[in-house]
């Protein structure tokens, strides 16, 4: 199982999966057959996470081949990622608290706990399945969704390690890792996301869903909800669509959205002329304790280069690789090309967004306003991520109509 960090590879994987996205996916998706047999799932998430391919085009491709009734389970899985992003966008302090807790949690481990932590991330706890998934994650940058749940449950309730350290381990090594899906999924397993509702991994379930590959012993018999987190804040106002500025603009890409071509109409309608394209040469550090996985670093750097090159071709503008998202570098780049403003795809809560927010005030002071372009997909869906997923799920048919996708949206 390999992941080539290009849009072309993502489109090829999508075309291969579409015939299997209907009832066959719904029937088989929960089985984890290991890294050498992923035919029952899409494995599209690394490309979607970086928007090398967008959620919209994935759902469009599936609903061109299948009815919503047949492909409903897969479409829901795509919207799960959207829901998580919207939920965190409305409550950014949850991400900030998780990030701030990682280094202190590591420092607070006793000698015995630190040894358990080091064994857990190295895959040498002696727990069947769990150790295999730890090694699989580092080797491939990917885990089946159920393996992620089992791993998190064992980490929290059997090994009794801080959930934030487990979430950090995943985020550093998952090619599809993003702050929303990863953080909130770990919170859900721990009983924080839906207060008091935990997820308990059992030997019977693991045995069944891995078709007998693993049946671990010694797992926790109960999952008592974690209570070390602050109350969830009420949702803030969702972001709104802001028109791009007119005139000469510099287009800045980041690792959360690398399909600038699909923003061309939004820019053209506003009278914006893209005169330069840039992105960081490397992705942002995902963890306050560093140690980003080498596969993640390589994939992200190649994805940024692919997005940067495609955008340069699409807009007929020169491309630059920058040393990170820093105001001084952005100012120098934009002025070198005579740009009067900088535009960038909207960055959801996470490391790239933090860097953009840090640079924004300094850019404005230098007469180079930074405008984030919100996609219709996010603008229409995120405001409904105020409660749990199931009320959100009920809105999917209406969202498809609003977004003009599929047979119900035409």
From TrEMBL:
Cofactor binding summary note: Binds 1 FAD per subunit.
Flavoprotein is among the record's keywords: yes
PANTHER family, sorted: CRYPTOCHROME, CRYPTOCHROME CIRCADIAN CLOCK 5 ISOFORM X1
Keywords, ordered alphabetically: FAD, Flavoprotein
Taxonomic source organism: Microcella alkalica
The organism's place on the tree of life at top rank: Bacteria
Gene Ontology biological-process entries: response to light stimulus
Residues holding FAD: 25, 74, 176-178
Protein name from the UniProt record: Cryptochrome/DNA photolyase FAD-binding domain-containing protein
Domain Cryptochrome/DNA photolyase FAD-binding: 74-213
MF GO annotations: deoxyribodipyrimidine photo-lyase activity; DNA binding; FAD binding
Cofactors, names only: FAD
InterPro entries in the cross-refs: Crypto/Photolyase_FAD-like_sf, Cryptochr/Photolyase_FAD-bd, Cryptochrome/DNA_photolyase_1
Residue ranges crossing the lipid bilayer per the database entry: none
UniProt keyword Flavoprotein present: yes
């Amino acid at each position: 199982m390999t992941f080539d960090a290009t849009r072309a590879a993502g489109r090829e994987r999508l075309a291969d999966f579409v015939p299997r996205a209907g009832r066959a996916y719904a029937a088989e998706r929960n089985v984890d057959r290991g890294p050498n047999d992923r035919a029952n799932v899409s494995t599209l998430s690394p490309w979607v996470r970086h928007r090398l391919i967008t959620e919209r085009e994935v759902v469009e491709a599936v609903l061109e081949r299948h009815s919503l009734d047949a492909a409903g389970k897969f479409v829901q899985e795509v919207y799960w990622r959207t829901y998580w992003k919207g939920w965190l966008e409305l409550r950014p302090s949850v991400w900030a608290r998780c990030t701030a807790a990682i280094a202190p949690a590591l420092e607070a481990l006793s000698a015995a706990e630190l040894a358990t932590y080091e064994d857990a991330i190295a895959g040498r706890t002696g727990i069947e399945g769990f150790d295999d998934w730890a090694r699989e994650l580092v080797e491939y940058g990917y885990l089946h969704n159920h393996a992620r749940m089992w791993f998190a449950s064992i980490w929290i309730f059997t090994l009794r390690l801080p959930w934030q350290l487990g979430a950090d381990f995943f985020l550093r090594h998952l090619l599809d890792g993003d702050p929303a899906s990863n953080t909130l999924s770990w919170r859900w397993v721990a009983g924080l996301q839906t207060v008091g509702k935990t997820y308990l991994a059992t030997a019977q379930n693991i045995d069944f869903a891995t078709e007998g590959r693993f049946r671990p012993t010694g797992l926790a018999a109960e999952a008592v909800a974690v209570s070390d987190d602050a109350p969830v804040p009420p949702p803030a106002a969702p972001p709104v669509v802001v028109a791009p500025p007119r005139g000469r603009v510099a287009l800045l890409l980041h690792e959360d959205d690398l399909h600038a071509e699909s923003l061309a109409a939004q820019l053209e309608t506003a009278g914006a002329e893209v005169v330069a394209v840039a992105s960081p040469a490397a992705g942002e550090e995902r963890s306050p304790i560093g140690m980003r996985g080498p596969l993640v670093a390589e994939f992200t750097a190649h994805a940024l280069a692919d997005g940067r090159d495609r955008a340069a071709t699409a807009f007929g503008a020169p491309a630059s690789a920058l040393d990170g998202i820093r105001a001084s570098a952005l100012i120098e780049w934009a002025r070198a090309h005579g740009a009067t403003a900088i535009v960038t795809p909207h960055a959801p809560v996470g490391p790239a967004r933090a860097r953009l927010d840090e640079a924004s005030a300094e850019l404005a002071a230098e007469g180079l306003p930074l405008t984030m372009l919100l996609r219709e997909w996010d603008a229409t869906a995120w405001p409904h991520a105020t409660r749990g997923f199931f009320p959100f799920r009920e809105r999917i048919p209406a969202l498809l109509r609003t977004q003009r996708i599929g047979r119900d949206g035409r």
